Amino acid sequence: MYHFIYTKIYQLHTKPAPATGIGLFRLFYGMVLFQEICFLLYFNHLIFDPTPYIDVEFPLIPFFLCLWAIAALFIIAGYQCQYALIVSYIFWIVFVQFTPMQRDFDGGFDAFMTGAGFFLLFMPTDKAFAIDQLRLKLSTPFRHYSQHQKPTVSILSYHLPILICLGFLYFDSAIHKLFAEHWRNGLGAWLPSTQPYYVSAINMSWLLNQEVLQKMIGYTIIIFQFSFLFLFSNRHLRPIYLFIGIGLHLGITISLNIYPFGLSMLIFYILLVPFSWWRCLAKTLRPTQPLLLVYYDKDCPLCNRTALTVNHFDIFKCIEFKDAQTFSNKQPALSSIPLNTLLTDLYAVDENGKVYSGINTYIRILIKMRYPFLFGWLMSIPGIYHLTKTIYRNIADNRQRTPCNQDCIIPNTTQCKLPTFYDRLFETDNPRLRKNLKTLSKALFIICILQINSSLHYGLLYRLNVDTRNNPMTLTLTQASNSILLLSHSFIGITPHALYLHDHFEGYDSLLAITYTNNEGDEAWLPFINQEGRILAPHWGRVHSMWANIAVTPNIDVIRLNKLIMKITAYWSHRLELNLDDTVFTIKIKTNSAPSFWVYDLLNQNLSGEWSNLGTVHWKHQQFHSNLSQMLLNHASLKSSYWPTVTPE
């Protein structure tokens, strides 16, 4: 197996590929990460305080979240990529392992994002759409941007993350699905979408009521996940897997309220896009002729750096720079302007032959580049225009014109750029490269063993109810397997992917919500769960997981339920400016159905149920009191006698 892995790795490494997909993958990973950090900042008291706003155990959490957000912004911009990715990876491990974020607020994608962050450490993330690439150009003696070759990377950097983060995940998940009755019935995608706690604000019942279509989707997902690991690299089948995967995770993002999980999976499909599609897309989006010709002083270091910088951000290639000394006499629109005058400013000519100079050239550059056009319009506003014009004139009139060789280099740019792990592993001499590839093969072999351990332990032995406690040897192996899984889960993100199976929904027959008595004595719904039983935005993602997967389950743990109700009531009392000691919170309950067989219009049936009072909770002197323990016991004993059941049609 090791020899096979080494041979494949060596073959893939020798094939060059454009860096476009890697750059976009890094950019969108940073965006998903940044939105999740903003979510953690917004709910930091609910997630991290033992008692929200009352017992604040981690006062520096917002500070460290802000540091993490800065690292995420660096990842998006591609600035100091290696440093930013290392910092982000450490933050993922620290926050997941040492805060309540994982214990009570598991977002369902923490392990996945940790694994993605781990592989990003070894990917050529600074080759495209990255400020680091611009800094590299500016740190060398000036060459016209047309002389710079487009960076290429090894195709291996595309295949490895897809293989491990998607292929292994799908195969492991498919094994678990075979043990779930509703998945075997083709209803794996349908059932979660009929549960009020799980659906988004969009009512998809028109689609859920198509039984044949839903079963086709369910069985397609199983086939897709079992086969993805082995067939995704086939260039003829890749578009099929690309569109099915995008449809699957886009559907999760839109229809369910676990959008971070859907988005985090979607970004991996950027790596699956065929390279010819990127070239075709670039050809479609870029104009056949430049929209603006800009004439610059080739002997001015500042002008040369400006040309390189604008070209770097001009992703649609709408701007073309020409040196005024050589090309100005070939432009009829500039023929009447003396060369000495041309060299005092930055002149530009658009496709209609109109001439711009000075700050107006920069405004036209921003507008013609398309995506930053708002900044161009903003600079045109009176007041802002005159301010920017004054700043421009101060810089332009005081610049020094010298032959552009070493003077065009920005000092210390090379020294402050940390060589990426990718550079050290793959962009080296041949003998060392072979040694590195052998080391990588061994690492990949170990990762395969770790994934097999997880899939065998929890995908087969656990699901088959194999008892390993009676035999000392099997007990020791089980304990060792658990320890290995703990390490692989923490640092690489390898974990059992048993999501939304029968052990999650079987017996999920009750929904809980919370109301309170307002100052007028009227009962009002806490803005957390509405009258239909939907979890309201922005309580999606990990807050949804806290309530729907931990607090309210088929077998409710009263201690944990009370703990999480305590957190919700304390948090929203502060946000709504309620007096805790004078407010009584009522816990509402209504029936819910989660069958493993087809039921027409089940979503609307679950949304339209009637609520009844289960019990109350209240606060006295910042102490939480609840009578839910006895109420839940009474409810459990009476439930079977009056709770309606749903039968297959």
TrEMBL record:
Superkingdom of origin: Bacteria
Coiled-coil stretches noted in the UniProt entry, renumbered to this chain: none
Membrane topology qualifier: Multi-pass membrane protein
Pfam families membership: DCC1-like
UniProt-recorded Gene Ontology molecular function terms: protein-disulfide reductase activity
Keyword Cytoplasm: no
Chief place of localization: membrane
Keyword terms: Membrane, Transmembrane, Transmembrane helix
Localization per record: Endomembrane system
HTTM-like domain ranges (all copies): 14-277
Transmembrane segments: 21-43, 58-76, 83-99, 111-131, 152-171, 216-233, 240-259
A single Gene Ontology CC term: endomembrane system
PANTHER family, per database record: HTTM DOMAIN-CONTAINING PROTEIN, SPORULATION-DELAYING PROTEIN SDPB
Protein name: DUF393 domain-containing protein
The species this protein was found in: Methylotuvimicrobium buryatense
UniProt lineage: Bacteria, Pseudomonadati, Pseudomonadota, Gammaproteobacteria, Methylococcales
